[in-house]
Structure formats: structure tokens, C-alpha cells
Specification:
Length: 771
């Protein structure tokens, strides 16, 4: 579907950010609101954190316009999105006013979070209703993947699927089809879970801090947990959604849960709406962040919460395993999980087929809408379906008839793997069916189950992903690069050069790679095993160089975090096809080191390529130096290109699920006319003049208090490598010359006490130490 321009009606929090996300996808938009409000909405986009835009230049793609006088401009729009206040009459009135200005082929959708789509369009003509549906983006639309599509009975089915395809590929969204019921899927279930949590907290005497401890990362949910999320989204929004549900679901067996408790009514009456008003369940003060006490309605200092069962389970990597153990725990943590999770599971089951037709759409809604690691039915499988259903029934809850057919299976599960294929229980067909995936999405786990593993060890696997392309998948802890991965890269290159058209380096875990194995480096340094360390660093360098100079094309497919060594593997490949959301950089100075896996050399070379023949190389030298010495990290693929980590020719997928398949396509394209590169011997280093130039800048930063004395030392090491240090004049050198300088600097820094302190602090806290 060709969407060249969109119009967004309403420049509030959601409307402006929806326009901003279209800008991320390089699609211009017309943003309408009352006089001055559209312009203000665009200005706010530039200030929000986390940033809703991939790049600060993107607001130029959004044009502010006024309701009324500028409506004739709507004829330019292929897609018009209504995002005004959640008021039925206001939405109806707006649709009537824009109708004369719409193109007959324009799609019109509403971003309503709960009003019936059929009611909003009730007074519109039939030809309008054919191209009318709901497109419910979640806030913030850049970061939350969910896009709920809500057709009406009149919606053209072909158009519906075209919007789904466009939302998936161009906007990077996970598409869920919802029914036109109050608050659709994610907000219906999420609001039930939130108000149930509030009820259990008040009745059982849990504190807000305890609830946030038990509903955060320990169960695979974001750090915002429950009450921090309320503050972030807006407690007033929670109130609006809850009242809407209470009024519009008269036959819901759990309707009373949606009645707002007195505690929450009091918070709303006082205007404590969360971050937007400066206070909500938490309040930021000069003395720290205070928390609200529901009993006194006063703020107090936060108390550290400790649950023995939670502390015992933190080392478990799989959150489903943690939940399964927590729910069996006899302490207060286990009690809380049982009383909040099991009723939510029953409620979700009873909403099928009322709000949605299958469990996959339920699970995807919760994962994509709230950033949960696993969906409700996936979690249910982990805790055990039969035992939990028996327990829930003992508590007086009922289930739909289709649940009896699940329980009739020898091993009752909502999901199973059969002959290498992930299947789900279809509540209409009464049988297991393959979990559907959009065309063009390659699932590595499925390939492995179907005997696609060529070779593997503890750190990585080489997988046949079809069409003569192999994929090297990292699967160490945090995908940290150690000896296993280095060895597997060597084997992968040998196998690919012999039997394949090319190689993709990528995985489908939480992140591409957090870098080198710091613990291993620290232990070796403390033992003063310098010869061993020298061999390890040299092997790492040779590994990265082998990617670039392989006889077959190698394409890196990074996503999420690709830091340190993860960044070096990416920039050391022939090409990069990344996710749009990529946080990449050479961050080694944060732990008192310098990039020594070809990273310092490569960033310098990439910057130097931008220098035209005969031009002054010093500005490009400075850019390369600052990128490494200041440990700059991109917050999007566009920023990665600006920083020089990625080339302008490198490509990306808006939808992270498509990265592996799209990277595979890049490999196939490169393989058609691939010429094996040769190591370079012509890199121009500026020598003493360049070193003095950088030294002056480092000195000024130190005198200005911007860096510490040890940071100054690290900067000097980077400068030495990028200039050749004591070369008396500009000289052309080999890549190996620079790699030897990298390795020498890295080893010398590993022997420094302050570097070891920085590494220890990072391993202990996950944060850099500025000593």
C-alpha cells in the first residue's frame, strides 16, 4: 500500500507522537489542531525523553495546520488518523466536518482507546464506512510495538490487510486484530489486572514499593512495574479507562473490579496525576523520590523491600520459571502473585471469544502493548495449566467451554512444539494449529528445531536459514563475546566459504551483544596472565578481520544493544542490516579500556573516508576521536549513521522481527557480484601533528572539569592509536599497524588499578565509575 502522506487530527500527546513516528518512517504528515496547538505539539516532540524521534531533524516532516481553515489540505493525505479527545460527540462532529475534504480513496481511522468504532461513524455515509476502522497506537508509539486494528462490519477487508501490512513493514508494528468492544484487548485486560492489583494491595496491606518490586522485572515486566507505570502514563487516564469500562461492560462477571476504589478517587480528586503534575503515587523532591502511603495519603521516604523468595529467584534467567516458583511460594510474595495473577488468567480466558478470537492475539497484545517478556497464556503454561485451573475453580471462578477441551489433552498446554513447529490451541477448531507469522519473518528457533543447526557450542550456533545462507547466532549470557564465540566465528567462516553463499550474524534474543566478557578479562588481569591476554585480544582482532575479508559476504544484523565488542563485530562485517531501534557504540572507556577489537581503527577509517582528496583531515580525526573517547552511543539507526558507526549504504528494518530475513536478503544480493576484499595498507595517519592537535583538546576538557585525570589518560591512548603517535610526518600504514597499537594500549590499561576498579564497578552495579 502506497502511503505517501498522512494527516493526524489532534496534536495532543498521542497525535503529535503518531505524526513523529511517521516521520521516523520518512513519511510526511499534516498535523491539525486548534490555533497554535499543532506547532506546540511539534515543539514538545523535540524535548521529550525518551526521544520519540530517531533524529532531531525529523520534525521538518511534520507540518502544523489548523482545524477548519486548513481542512482543504486533507486532499493531500492518503491516510487520515483521528486522535482528538475521548469524547463520542467530539469525534462524530470532527468526522462530519472533514468529510467534504477527503479524497474518495483515503483511509480514515481513529486512535480511540475504547470508544466503539461503529458508534463514532454511525452518522457517516456507507462509502465512508468502507474505508473506516480503528488503529489504536500505544503510547509512546516509537517504543511500544502494539498496533490494534479494529474493523467494523462495513470495513473493506482488503484495505484492513493493507493497513496491517503497512503498519508491520513501514511502521515496525506488531499487528493485533481486535473486536469493537470496550477498550479492545490490551487495555481491557491491562486495566483489569491493574485494578485487581490495587484491590489486593489495599485489602492485604502491601505497600506501593512492595507491589512495584513484585510486578517488575522479577516477573518479566518493565522496571516501571505498576505504580511507576501509572505515573508515567497518567493516573487520570487510568481513571477514564476504568470508568469507561464500568459503564460499558454491564454483563462482565468481574465488572465490580472496574469500580474505582476510594483511595484512587482521592488521588484523582487531588489532581495527583503522576509525572505530568509532578506527583502521583511517587513524588520527586530535592531530597529524593518519595512514595504515597495509602493509609495516611501523605508522602514518605521509600523503604527497601526484601522478599526471601524473590531474592532466591533472581539468578533464574527465564521469568516464566521465576513466576512458576513464586506462585508456589508460601510467603507474602507468593500470596500476592497468586491473588493477582490467577484471577487475571481466568479473566483473559473468559474474554475469548468476546474481545478476540485466539490466545495468540491476547499474548501478543500484552507483550507488545506493555513490554512484557511473555504473554498470559505462555505464563499459564509455565505454572501448569491443570493444577492452576483446579485451584482457580476452587476459588469460585468459571471458565469457557473451550477450556474443558484443553484440559482433556494428555498434557494440557496452550502452546506446544510439534515436529519443530510452535503450535497454539485454536479455541474454534478445537485443535492445535501453527502459530501464524507474517510473511517474511524468519524464526531462528523454528529453523533450529527443524534440524537447521550445522554446528554449535556453549556460546554460539551456526544455523542453515535456507537459500544458501547461514546464520551465526550468539547465545551466551547477554551474548557476551568470549572464547566460545571466537572459536565458532572461525568455524563459521570456514564452513560458509566452502558450502554457502554468505553469512548473517544475528540472533533473536533480548539484545545483539553487550560486548566482550569483562569478568574473564578482569580475572586474567588480576592473575597477571599477560601472554594469555595478548593472545585473547589478538584472536578477537583476527576474528573481526576474518568477517571483513571472508571469501563470502558477511552481513551483521544487530538490534537492541550492540555495545563494545558487539559494535565491533557489526562494523567489522561487509555490511550491516540492523533494526531501526539500535543502541550501538564503542563504550570501552567507561570501563577504563579502549576498543581493541579493531573498533578504534575502524571508526577512524570510516571518518577518514568522508574526507575529500586534498581536504583538511583534522576535523574527521576529531570526530573519530570524540566518538570513541566520549563513548558515544546511538539511540537509533539514523544516529548510528551520523556517528559513523554505520555507513550511509547500510540498511535497516523498522520491524525488528524482520531483521534476520532482511539481512539474509542483503547477503543474497551481495553474493551475486561479490569480490573478496583485501586488507588495507594505505591508511593515512597524521602523526605528531595530529596527536598534538588532539592533546590540546583533551587538556582543555580536563581543565574545564569535563573529564577526570584518568579519562585524560584514556583519551591520550585513543589519540595515540588514531594518529600513529610518534610518526614524524603523515604516513600511510597498514591495518595491522593500527591493530598492534590497539592491543598494546588495551593491555597496558588492563594492568592499571583504576581500570580494574572501573571493571569491578560495572560488573557489580551495571553503571560506569568515573574515578
Amino acid at each position: 500500500m502506497r502511503i505517501k502522506k498522512v494527516a493526524v487530527l489532534g496534536a495532543g500527546t498521542m497525535g503529535s507522537q503518531i505524526a513523529g513516528h511517521f516521520a521516523n518512517a520518512s513519511i510526511p504528515s499534516l498535523l491539525f489542531d486548534m490555533p497554535g496547538l499543532a506547532k506546540a505539539g511539534i515543539e514538545k516532540l523535540k524535548k521529550l525523553d525518551p526521544a520519540p524521534l530517531f533524529d532531531p531533524s525529523l520534525p521538518s516532516l511534520i507540518e502544523p495546520l489548523e482545524f477548519g481553515p486548513d481542512f482543504p489540505r486533507l486532499k493531500e493525505a492518503d491516510w487520515v488518523i483521528e486522535a482528538v479527545v475521548e469524547d463520542l460527540e467530539a469525534k462524530r462532529s470532527l468526522l462530519k466536518s472533514i468529510l467534504p475534504h477527503l479524497r474518495p480513496d483515503a483511509v480514515v481511522t481513529s486512535n480511540t482507546s475504547g470508544l466503539p468504532l461503529s458508534s463514532i461513524s454511525a452518522e457517516m455515509p456507507a462509502e465512508f464506512k468502507n474505508r473506516w476502522l480503528g488503529t489504536h497506537f500505544f503510547n509512546p508509539p516509537r517504543y511500544l510495538k502494539l498496533l490494534e486494528l479494529i474493523p467494523t462490519p462495513e470495513t473493506d477487508e482488503t484495505l484492513l490487510h493493507e493497513i496491517a501490512d503497512f503498519g508491520d513493514k513501514r511502521l515496525g508494528k506488531g499487528i493485533v486484530y481486535a473486536k469493537d468492544t470496550p477498550n479492545f484487548i490490551a487495555n481491557r485486560l491491562g486495566t483489569y489486572g491493574a485494578l485487581l492489583t490495587l484491590k489486593v494491595m489495599l485489602e492485604e496491606g502491601y505497600t506501593i514499593e512492595e507491589v512495584d518490586t513484585l510486578t517488575g522485572p522479577i516477573i518479566g515486566h518493565p522496571k516501571t512495574a505498576t505504580f511507576r507505570l501509572f505515573d508515567l502514563v497518567g493516573i487520570d487516564i487510568l481513571g477514564v479507562v476504568a470508568r469507561n469500562l464500568y459503564e460499558n461492560v454491564p454483563n462482565d462477571e468481574e465488572r465490580e473490579i472496574f469500580k474505582i476504589p476510594k483511595f484512587l478517587e482521592e488521588v484523582l480528586a487531588r489532581g495527583w496525576f503522576g509525572n505530568k503534575t509532578g506527583q502521583g503515587f511517587y513524588k520527586k523532591t530535592p531530597d529524593g523520590i518519595l512514595v504515597l502511603d495509602p493509609k495516611t495519603m501523605e508522602y514518605r521516604p521509600q523503604k527497601k523491600t526484601v522478599f526471601p523468595s524473590v531474592e532466591m529467584l533472581r539468578s533464574m534467567e527465564d521469568p516464566r520459571e521465576r513466576i512458576a516458583n513464586l506462585i508456589r511460594s508460601k510467603d507474602r510474595a507468593g500470596n500476592f502473585i497468586r491473588k493477582t495473577l490467577t484471577p487475571l488468567l481466568a479473566y483473559a480466558a473468559n474474554r475469548i471469544p468476546e474481545i478476540v478470537d485466539d490466545i495468540v492475539n491476547v499474548d501478543n497484545s500484552m507483550k507488545w502493548g506493555f513490554n512484557w517478556s511473555h504473554g498470559l497464556f505462555e505464563t499459564w503454561d509455565a505454572i501448569g495449566v491443570r493444577k492452576s485451573v483446579d485451584r482457580i475453580r476452587e476459588e469460585g471462578k468459571h471458565f469457557p467451554q473451550w477450556m474443558d477441551l484443553v484440559l482433556a489433552q494428555p498434557d494440557p498446554k496452550f502452546y506446544r512444539v510439534e515436529k519443530g513447529e510452535l503450535q497454539y490451541w485454536d479455541t474454534f477448531a478445537y485443535e492445535y494449529r501453527p502459530v501464524p507469522h507474517p510473511e517474511g519473518v524468519l524464526i531462528l528457533e523454528q529453523r533450529k528445531l527443524q534440524n537447521g543447526v550445522i554446528k554449535k557450542n556453549a556460546g554460539a550456533s551456526l544455523i542453515d536459514i535456507g537459500d544458501g545462507v547461514a546464520c551465526l547466532e550468539f547465545h551466551s549470557k547477554m551474548n557476551a563475546i568470549g572464547g566460545d564465540i571466537i572459536q565458532m566465528v572461525k568455524s563459521a567462516i570456514e564452513i560458509v566459504e566452502k558450502d554457502f553463499a554468505g553469512l548473517v550474524i544475528g540472533n533473536q534474543g533480548e539484545n545483539f551483544s553487550a560486548g566482550a566478557n569483562l569478568m574473564l578479562l578482569l580475572l586474567e588481569a588480576q592473575e597477571e596472565n599477560w601472554d594469555e591476554l595478548n593472545m585473547v585480544i589478538k584472536a578477537f582482532q583476527q576474528m573481526v578481520m576474518s568477517l571483513r575479508y571472508s571469501a563470502k559476504p558477511v552481513v551483521a544484523a544487530p538490534f537492541g544493544l550492540a555495545l563494545g565488542g558487539g559494535c565491533e563485530v557489526s562494523i567489522g562485517s561487509d555490511a550491516i542490516h540492523s533494526a531501526a531501534e539500535i543502541y550501538t557504540g564503542l563504550v570501552e572507556v567507561g570501563v577504563g579500556l579502549i576498543p581493541a577489537g579493531t573498533g578504534t581503527k575502524e571508526i577512524y577509517v570510516r571518518n577518514l573516508k568522508r574526507c575529500l582528496p586534498g581536504a583538511d583531515p583534522f576535523p574527521y580525526l576529531r570526530n573519530a576521536f570524540e566518538t570513541v573517547a566520549l563513548a558515544k552511543v546511538s539511540r537509533s539507526v539514523l544516529e548510528a549513521k551520523k556517528l559513523g558507526y554505520y555507513a550511509d549504504s547500510d540498511t535497516f528494518s523498522m520491524n525488528g522481527d524482520r531483521v534476520i530475513q532482511d539481512a539474509k536478503n542483503v547477503v543474497l544480493q551481495l553474493s551475486k557480484n561479490y569480490t573478496q576484499p583485501q586488507p588495507r595498507n594505505d591508511i593515512l595517519l597524521t602523526g605528531r601533528a595530529g596527536y598534538a592537535y588532539l592533546q590540546a583538546g583533551i587538556y582543555l576538557m580536563k581543565e574545564a572539569g569535563q573529564i577526570s585525570e584518568y579519562d585524560q589518560k584514556l583519551g591520550q591512548k585513543v589519540a595515540w592509536i588514531m594518529t600513529g603517535g610518534d610518526l614524524t610526518e603523515p604516513t600511510r600504514v597498514s591495518e595491522q599497524f593500527m591493530l598492534d597499537l590497539e592491543r598494546e594500549a588495551f593491555l597496558s590499561l588492563l594492568g592499571e588499578r583504576k581500570t580494574q576498579e572501573r571493571i569491578q564497578h560495572m560488573l557489580k552495579t551495571g553503571k560506569p565509575l568515573r574515578n
